[in-house]
Amino acid sequence: MQLTLTPYRPALLKFQSLIALFILCLGISLLSDKFLTVANFWNVLRQISVNVCISTGMTLVVLTAGIDLSVGSILALSGAITAGLLRNGIELPGANLFIGFTLLGAIIAGLLTGSALGWFNGWAITRFKLPPFVATLAMLTIARGLTMLWTEGFPITGLGDSFTYLGTGWFLGIPLPVWVSGSLVAVAVLVTNKTRLGRYIYAIGGSESAARLSGVNINRIKLTVYTLAGALAAIGGILVTSRLDSAQPNAGISYELDSIAAVVIGGTSLSGGRGSVLGTVQGAIIIGVLNNGLVLLNVSPFWQQVVKGLVILVAVGIDKANAKTE
Question: In Å, what is the CA distance from 169 to each residue of 55, 61, 101, 176, 239?
Answer without folding.
Answer: 23, 31, 22, 6, 11
